[in-house]
Amino acid sequence: MSAPRFVELTWRGSVVRIEHQWLAAERAQAPLVVFLHEGLGSIRQWRDFPLQVVKATGCRALVYSRYGYGQSDVLAEPCAGVDFMHREAVEALPELLARLAMER
Question: Is the pTM of this model over 0.70?
Fold first, then answer.
C-alpha cells in the first residue's frame, strides 16, 4: 500500500489538489477498482475496506479524497445543488483518471 499522494486537477476554472492512494499498484495487469465516493468523501473514511477488497479479489485499487474532503484542497466555493456529486463525477473523475494515466 502506498502513502497518499496528490495530483492537480482543474475544477470549474481553478486548480485543486486531490489526495489519492494506490493499493497493489504493482499488479499492473490486474483489473483496477476505483473507489468512488458518495457519503464517504475521503480515504480515511473508507478505513481498511479497499484493502480487504484488493486482498479478496487480486485487483489493484485507487482510492481518492474528493475535492473538499480528507487532505484534498478545501472547497473554494459552496457545493450548492443536489447534483454536486454527480457534477464532480462527470467533470473531475475523468480528469483524475487521465492525470493518473488510466486508459480504461
Answer: yes
